[in-house]
Amino acid sequence: MTQHHVPRSGIARIGVLIAAAAIVVAACGGGAATQAPATQAASEAPPASASAPAASPSAAQSYKVGYISLGEAIPFVKLVSDNIKAEADKAGVEIAFCDSEIDAAKALACAQNLKVQQVQAVLNFQLFEDSSKEVCAGYGDLPTIAIDIHQAPCEVAFMGADNETAGKLSGKYAGDAVKAENNCTYEAVVTLDTKGAGATTLARMNGMIEGFEEACGKIPAEKFKSLDVGGTTDQAVTKFGDQLSAIKPGGVVVVLSLNDDMSLGAFAAARTAGREGELRLAGQGADPTSWKDIACNPQWLADTAYFPERYGTILIPAVVDLLNGKTIEKNLFTKHEVVTKDNVRTLYPDTPAC
Predict the structure, then answer these.
(1) Is residue 329 part of a domain?
(2) In sequence order, what DSSP letters do the residues of 206-243 get, joined into one string?
(3) Which CATH number does the domain housing residue 255 bear?
(4) In what order do the strands lie in the sheet with 331-333?
(5) How many domains are there within the chain?
(6) Of 34, 165, 261, 290, which one has the fewest beta carbons inside 10 Å?
């Protein structure tokens, strides 16, 4: 497996970064946080010397790392961010934080503001793979650990889903369930996608389709509907609702969704149309918004768990190793598991009662 490192001699020359909505996490005893709007000019950014953390036994020296969040309004992302901040605090790593708010222009603004801070590496979770070259350049192509979406050309490691495997797990479960129910008889298979994320979501969705087809055979072209929903509940309500109205009622509609937000939107649209019982859904993420439905809604067949609440436990040690001049693996995959009504309460004891 290819590995990467940053030589010690190069660390001191790595440029200065700020998160446009900077939250500085101090090392020992919880430091103060500073914030700035995403559109703030780089020249107005807080001085790099402010709120510098003390040295920690966990790191060879004090480091400052930029973090671009995909969008804190998405529960999965908020769990990732919270764990990054918590693990950084334990390790004595200062985090400069910026929420890109699922917006390519805001991601670039974050990168441009990060450039004026003394950040030595970046954890990059911005959504739009086709904007990654500009975003990387915006913060000076600093060594980057990409989170769930590839970030060429500055990416030296990828942390997140083993995408094709993750997709296949819940897709196969859905296919097996539909085969057991009615020998794979359905009106349509609808995919809820986020195409702007590029190769990442393509691999994940291809895995879901492959898993479903492994159980039920190739999906006929006339029954396959692919929707670019952008990852949000609101868009899913509208776009899936429109698609559902074009599908003959009364049969089974298989839904393969790339995140729980879109899954919730699909169910909301179907509920409004009085057709919730037609859905057979498999999703991705298994964040807390999905737990009750997985446990109690027989139409929500399965999710693939990514355990976003553990991302920081992988990312922070990796970025510290990187800045200490050690090699890190190119792919830092999270562990995946299928979550169903049979195991959701075991994996997540806080699942609400039905």
Answers:
(1) no
(2) HHHHHHHHHHH-PPPGGGEEEEE-TT-HHHHHHHHHHH
(3) 3.40.50.2300
(4) 93-99, 63-69, 121-124, 144-147, 155-160, 331-333
(5) 2
(6) 165
Same-domain status, 188 and 319: no
State the pTM of this model. Answer: 0.74
The letter for the amino acid at 269 is A
Positions of the chain with pLDDT lower than 70, given as ranges: 1-60
Residue type at position 262: M
- The answer to whether 39 touches 95, Cβ cutoff 8 Å, is no
Q: How does pLDDT run across 303-330, given as a tens digit for each residue?
A: 999 999 999 999 999 999 999 999 999 9
The pLDDT score that the predictor gives to residue 196 is 82
How far is Cα 227 from Cα 127, in angstroms, rounded to an integer? 17
Within a domain: 331: no
Taking the C-alpha atoms of residue 3 and residue 44, their distance in angstroms, rounded to an integer, is 37
Cα dihedral: 138, 139, 141, 145 (round 10): -120
Distance CA 280, CA 252 (A): 7
Q: How far apart are the first and last CA of the chain?
A: 45
Between CA 56 and CA 51 the distance in angstroms is 15
User: What are the two backbone dihedrals, phi and then psi, of residue 226, each rounded to the nearest 5 degrees?
Assistant: -115, 120
pLDDT of residue 13: 33
Q: Return the beta strands (E) in 161-290 as ranges.
A: 188-193, 224-228, 253-257, 279-285
Nearest to 282 by CA among 347, 225, 207: 207
Whether residue 301 sits in one domain with residue 167: yes
Q: 146 in helix, strand or coil?
A: strand
Question: In this structure, which amino acid lies at residue 152?
Answer: A
pLDDT at 282: 98
Helix %, strand %, coil % for the chain, to 5?
Answer: 40, 20, 40
Inter-residue contact 145 to 315 (CB < 8 Å): yes
Q: What is the pLDDT of residues 230-287, one digit of tens each?
A: 999 999 999 999 999 999 999 999 999 999 999 999 999 999 999 999 999 999 999 9
Are 209 and 94 members of one domain? no
* Residue 247 backbone phi and psi in degrees, to 5: -105, 135
Residue 354 lies in a domain: no
- The closest alpha carbon to 273, from 249, 297, 295, 252, belongs to 249
Give the model's pLDDT for residue 117: 87
